[in-house]
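Lab notebook: predicted structure, single chain.

Context: the supervisor wants predicted structures on file for every construct in the current expression panel, including those that have not yet been purified. This is the next one on the list. No modifications to the sequence; it matches the entry in the shared construct table.
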Amino acid sequence: MMRATLAGLLMWGVCCDGASAQDRDRNTAGSIHGGTMGLGMEIQQRLSDTLVVRGGVDRLRHDFERRYGGVDYEAGLDFDTVGVFLDLHPFSNALFVSGGGYMGARELRLTAEPDAPVEIGGAVFTPAQVGRLSGEATLTAVSPFVGVGFDTTFTSRRRVGLRALFGVAVGEDPEVALTSAGGTLSNHPAFRARLDIEARRIEQEAEYSLYPVAQIGLTYRF
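Prediction complete. Output recorded below exactly as produced.
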C-alpha cells in the first residue's frame, strides 16, 4: 500500500511539472515518509516564505540481535510517536533547519535463552539456572529534536515535492527491567539482585539518549 501510494505521487509530480501560479500559492501539504522513526504521515502548513510548521505520526517495528554484557538478546524496537516541528528556511529555498519534539510510547524489548554459561551481574550462571531472560526498556516519552533537511514542497512549481531530513532526538537513558523465567534460580533473591545489576549495565550500554533521525519522503500540496 505504501509503495503504491509513493509511486502514484511520483507519477503525479511528473505530470504536474508545468503547475500554475495558483498551485504555487497552495500553503498546505500532506506527506508520507520512512526512516529511523519508522513509517509516517505528516501535515505541513506554510506560514511564510521562511517558516513551515509540521505535525505527524510515526510507527516503527524493528527486530534485531544485540549483545549486552555477556548475553546475546533478540531485541525489538516499538515506537508509536507524534511529532510537532517548526522548519526555518533561512534563504527561502529548499534548505531548512528544524526544531521540535517527539512524544509517545517508545520501548526496547529484549529476550534471551542462553545455551552456555553466561555472566550476569558479575557472576557466571548455567543455562539451567538462568532459564529465559526477558527485558523491557522504556525510553523517554518526550524527546526534543533538532535537524537539517531539504524540502521542495513550497519551493517547486510541482505539487509533489521531495523532503529529506537528518537530525537527532534527545532523551534520557532508558530504564530497564530484567526478569527470568523457567530457571532453577529464577525466583532466588540473590539471582534477582544480579538481574538488577545486569539491568543497570544494559541501561549504560543501550545508548538511546541520542537517537539518530533520518527520513525521506514525498509531499503533496493541496
